[in-house]
Amino acid sequence: MAPRTLRGLAAELSTCWRELGSILASRRLHASLHPELGTSLTPSKLRGLELLAQHDGLRIGELADRVGVDDTTATRLVDRLEELGLAGRHSEEGDRRAILVGLTADGRELVAGVSAQRQQFFADVLATLEPDERIQLVRLTEKAALALRTRSEELATR
C-alpha cells in the first residue's frame, strides 16, 4: 500500500468531518436524541442555548459570532428562544445600554437535560471502540479542534 500524502489525508479528513458534521447537525439525530422537544427546537436554537449556558449572558453580536450567523439572524433566534420561555434579555449591570441575553430557569433545565442525553450518546459511540482507541480519539479530536480554532482565528484577523 502506497503511503498517503498530506493532501490525500487532508481530503479524506475533510470528507469524514463533513459527513460527521452533517450527522451531528441533522434534524433526524436531533429528533431521536430529544423527542420530547419536537420541532420547537432546531439544532441552531440548541446551539444558541448551549452558548448562553456556557457564558453567563451574551450580547446579540457575541452570540451571532459564536453561532456563526449575522446579528439579524441572532436577534430572530433570541426572539424565538424568548417566545419559548428559554431565554430573556436584560441590561448589563453598570451599562443600561448594553443588552445581554441569558437563560431562564427553564432554559437552564433544558440545557442540562440535553447535555446529559448528548453525553450518553457519545458514551455509546465510544463504547464501540477499544479502550485505547477511545482515549486516542478524544485526545486527537481535542488537538484538532484547537488547531482548527487557531487557524480560524488567524483567518478572521486577515
Would you mind describing this structure in some detail?
The protein has 158 residues and is mainly α. Helix content is 68%, strand content 11%. It is built from 7 helices and 3 strands, in the order αααβααββαα. A 3-stranded antiparallel sheet has the order 1-3-2. A hairpin with a 2-residue loop joins strand 2 and strand 3. Helix 4 crosses helix 5. The longest helix has 26 residues.
Briefly say what this structure is.
The chain has 158 residues and is mainly α. It has helices spanning 6-25, 27-33, 43-54, 60-67, 71-83, 105-126, 131-156, and strands spanning 58-59, 87-92, 95-103.
If you compute it from the alpha carbons, what radius of gyration comes out, rounded to the nearest whole angstrom?
A: 19 Å
Strands side by side in the biggest sheet: 1-3-2
Mean pLDDT: 88
Counted by DSSP, the helix tally is 7
Query: Helix proportion of residues, in percent?
Result: 55-70%
Question: What labels would you give this structure?
Answer:
mainly alpha; 158 residues; 7 helices; 3-stranded antiparallel β-sheet; 11% strand; globular
Write the layout of secondary structure elements.
Blueprint: H1 6-25, H2 27-33, H3 43-54, E1 58-59, H4 60-67, H5 71-83, E2 87-92, E3 95-103, H6 105-126, H7 131-156
Helix pairs in contact: 3-5, 4-5
